[in-house]
Specification:
The chain is an alpha+beta fold. It has a single domain (about 1-225), classed as Alpha-Beta Complex (Spore Coat Polysaccharide Biosynthesis Protein SpsA, Chain A), CATH 3.90.550. It has 7 helices and 13 strands. It has helices at about 1-5, 30-40, 55-65, 85-90, 145-155, 170-175, 200-205; strands at about 20, 45-50, 70-75, 80, 95-100, 115-125, 125-135, 140-145, 180-185, 195, 210, 215-220, 225. Strands 3-8-5-9 form a 4-stranded mixed beta sheet. The longest helix has 14 residues, at about 30-40.
Length: about 230
């Protein structure tokens, strides 16, 4: 949070700050600490604390509540590596662009401004051809309010909000996202502009994410914990 406060938040006029704190990865002391960190930076933040963890429901709830023309979607396990300004972000919101992703190592960026992926098109279970489609995901990004509201209305809260963009998992969502472009904002001093610090935390605790039919499950040394 501190890195984004110093390098990002202070450069923008922020109307609202909404946070979801799922009961996962800690106990009551960690919940209190998370709440305190948020309040230290944004005293008027609207905080949701559901009784059960659900990644899909968190995204659906937060995105459906967006009222601004633009929104920054962020997760707690990232740090900003350099300043991000309205001028840098706004310059990428060309006509038809709904999302500007903040480049990071996990994106495996190929240097292209447009963020796309290859999708298989099947008939009777047989791949008949491949096509390139926009790739949005839900890692940190700036998005238009119109896009996230439409996206949230189509999300199945029981599925991973990113994986269900596939045509065979959530056809309505896949069709919706195909109408927009996603671009990438890279760093000036290095390709990455943000860094994932959650991976080290997960590896230290033996947590591994397994996805099956659009549903995510975190596997640890104990019993599997299904976190949609």
């Amino acid at each position: 949070m501190q890195s984004f406060q110093e390098r990002v938040f202070r450069n923008f006029r922020i109307n609202n700050f909404r946070v979801n704190i799922d009961p996962f990865g800690g106990q009551e002391p960690e919940l209190v600490e998370c709440r305190s960190i948020v309040r230290d930076h944004f005293p008027q933040a609207i905080i949701s604390e559901p009784s059960q963890p659900s990644y899909g429901q968190a995204v659906k709830s937060l995105w459906s509540s967006v009222t601004s023309d633009f929104v920054l979607h962020l997760e707690d396990d990232w740090i900003a590596l350099e300043p991000i300004t309205p001028e840098r972000v706004g310059g990428l919101f060309h006509a038809g662009t709904a999302c500007v992703k903040l480049n990071n190592a996990e994106l495996r960026w190929d240097g292209r401004e447009l963020r796309t992926r290859i999708e298989k098109v099947k008939f009777a279970g047989i791949t008949v051809y491949y096509r390139r489609v926009p790739s949005f995901g839900v890692s940190p990004a700036f998005l238009t309010g119109e896009f996230v509201r439409g996206y949230s209305s189509l999300i199945d809260p029981n599925l991973d909000p990113e994986k269900q963009q596939r045509i065979h998992i959530n056809p309505s969502l896949a069709k919706y996202t195909s109408n927009f472009d996603c671009r990438v904002l890279a760093g000036l001093g290095q390709p990455e502009i943000i860094k994932d610090i959650g991976r080290e935390w997960r590896e230290a605790r033996g947590l591994e994410k397994v996805v099956s039919r659009g549903k995510s499950t975190w596997i640890s040394s104990g019993s599997p914990s299904s976190i949609p």
